[in-house]
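Archive transcription. Copying these from loose printouts into the bound notebook so they stop getting lost. Printout 1 of 2:
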Amino acid sequence: MNQRFKVISLTHRKAPLAIREQLALDEPACRQLLLILSQELGLTDVLVLSTCNRTEVYYSAPQDQCDAILSELAHLKSLPDTAQIAPYFTSTTGANAAVGHLFEVAMGLDAQVVGDQQISHQVKQAYQWSAEADAAGPFLHRLLHTVFFTHKRVRQETGFCDGAASVAYATLQLVEDLTAHLASPRVLLMGAGPFGMDVARHFGASRRFAHVTICNRTRAKADALATECGLRVLDFADLAQGIQEADVVVSSVAAAAPVITAQLLAPAAVLSHKYFVDLSVPRSIAPDVETVPGVLLYPLDAIRSKASAALERRLAAVPQVRAIIAESMAGLQDWSEEMEVSPTIQKLKNALEQLRQDEMKRFSKKMSPAEASLLDKITRSLMQKVLRQPVLQLKAACKRGEPGQLVESLTALFDLERQPVPA
């Protein structure tokens, strides 16, 4: 394993929502931080991951760079210093622990809702930004490709990714099913509280819905959420018109009495089915709306029951997921160790090739072209046979975790210190 690999992490487990919001990074900020850390601080294998529940920086460096990274983050977010944010971050300097953390994050094991699959797409996006900034070294490339392959195995071999385990995501899936027959469904989201924000983020991230509108009593909250998620905004005074135009209305409004009633809907003729999803407690959509022809209502309990069943299946699959992660990490460890001895193998090949070429020059002058060609083939074949056993022994030593002594012996025997370092 690359023993220089580390991570500094802020997550929902330690930081309240207000702090997470304060330190959340959009795409331009992530890209800017990548450049600062890789070009100005000289860090390698840099990955900046920022979601609604976490802000993390993975990197490779000889020493812990937690303070320097936090300083740059505070400057980027226009904070006076790091004193107020540092207690919420965890710095993991052990390579195995840092790698294991990234696997757990990308699989959804560390998500607020276990098995949340949105994080996998966010990790892929973060990796793309890192690669485009030339901040990803060979180790990070290999690590992320291993992570993505592991996620594919988890999806194919376990039930960990099945169903929607959060009410917000279950709502998205329900609306997708209800509107499958519509080419461009119109969705109205009511409410911009914590629950409404989760729902809006899921709809904003979905490629299925291009016409999603958010409506909230406080217009400023709706505007901020719409900007974040790429949604439209409807003024609360125009709610009745918005309901009339929507195919689906999802409400998470906190209200003492229902906001949507049969009386509100009655004046508007429902020419086809109109779907209402009530996520509020107490209910913000009166049950009597179903007396209006064409109206179908889905209450919170029905969606919550579906989400709870999915969560139970995911939790049951966690041991399988961890076993797959362990296999992937073992494979990554083997690759990392082989990479450590790769320069020695290449130097040995170069040393033997130089000897071969020197001897070819000595004897080929006295040979015909046909004889020289034959000698070239013979010596190449002989060199490969000589190399085979040392290479196999080096790889075997890597798997045992003890390549050091063999590397030293080969270096001394063949004077490999004099060989140039392979590019």
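Printout 2 of 2:
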Amino acid sequence: MAEADQALTDPTQPQEELGGVMSLREHLDELRKRLTVAILAIILASFVVWPFKDFVFHFVQLPLPRGAVLQQIAVTETLFTFVKISFIVGFGLASPIVVYEVLAFVAPGLYPHERRWLFMSIPAIALAFMAGVAFAWFIVLRFTVGFLAGFAPATISTEFTVDGWVSFVLRILLAVGLAFETPFIIFALAKIGVVTADSLARQRRYAIVAIAVISAIITPTPDPFTQASVGIPLYALYEVGVVLARVAAPADRAEDETGPEGDPEGDGSIPTTV
């Protein structure tokens, strides 16, 4: 594990200085250790959150329509819902440790320039996810809940169950948060050569259709304003991804493997002809 931690503290360190090639058994042992630390961190954080479950549960109820009351159908429904809330919030608190363990496992296998890109992207990825969660909380949930609550005719009484409501809110927050990671997913795909900026630009019309479908799924309301409130930010994220795809030129990988242009040996010497 020392070599992996060393790769994190010095992203520019060459691969050959990180302990050499590991066997399959060593890789599996390293993976087991990293998973153990990550799982223990999540469990511990979940126990830390448990005393504050009532506060978190009250916060989750805020988007409920005025006057709505959650119903408990099964005897154990509220208990298991509190366990779910504690686990999810605990996972969020432990996410820095989880991310560190993931990076420590994959970092030794990356080129120095790939480690640099990865470490520089982490703050932006975290901020994008939090921005997506905030957008879902203040915009998406407000319109979606308002529409769905009033969709039923007057002869039908709308009731919200404890588990159903919490699961609904968490799904919306997670879905929109992950949708805000689109630019970084595109960047990663462009970095390994799966997509290019030109191909993404040519497929823009299909992307617009896909975004419209996703917006309709997230906010199943008929009015165009609500659809646009979700679709426009998602399309803007797609365009940001196109820009990042142009930045993700694969030339730096070739340079890492062969050295700078005119230096195929990568040792700083320039070949000369005699």
